[in-house]
Write a sequence for this structure.
């Protein structure tokens, strides 16, 4: 299939697909007329790439993950990569906890249950402090 059809089937822009190819995440066969041609597996690969990007995984890690995630027997040792992916997952879980804490703090403030003076300034590496904006000034 050509890039336009892959874009339509995946919901990903042709520009993004060209970027994936540039980053070594997606491969295409170049036809004599310069058009890119993708196989059926490209649809699944693009969906997987999108999922990883959505999880905050950078392209250089995605590039390492892809050979270890194919249906074929992976080349090389993927155990170090799996540990790196676990670290990314754990970092995301920590960020989710911090976002939850921030949301609770803001909900408490917005509901009137807490005032800016009641909200403790978090220690370094945790939730960011909330700055009070007087009503009508936002």
């Amino acid at each position: 299939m050509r890039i336009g059809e892959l874009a339509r089937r995946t919901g990903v822009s042709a520009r993004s697909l060209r970027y994936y190819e540039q980053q070594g995440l997606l491969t295409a066969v170049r036809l004599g007329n310069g058009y890119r041609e993708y196989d059926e597996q490209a649809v699944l690969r693009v969906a997987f790439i999108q999922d990883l990007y959505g999880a905050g995984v950078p392209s250089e890690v995605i590039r390492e993950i892809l050979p270890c995630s194919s249906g074929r027997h992976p080349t090389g040792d993927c155990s170090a990569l799996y540990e790196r992916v676990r670290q990314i997952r754990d970092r995301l879980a920590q960020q989710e906890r911090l976002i939850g804490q921030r949301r609770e703090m803001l909900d408490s403030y917005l509901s009137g249950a807490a005032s800016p003076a009641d909200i403790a300034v978090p220690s370094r590496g945790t939730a960011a402090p909330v700055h009070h904006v007087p009503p009508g000034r936002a």
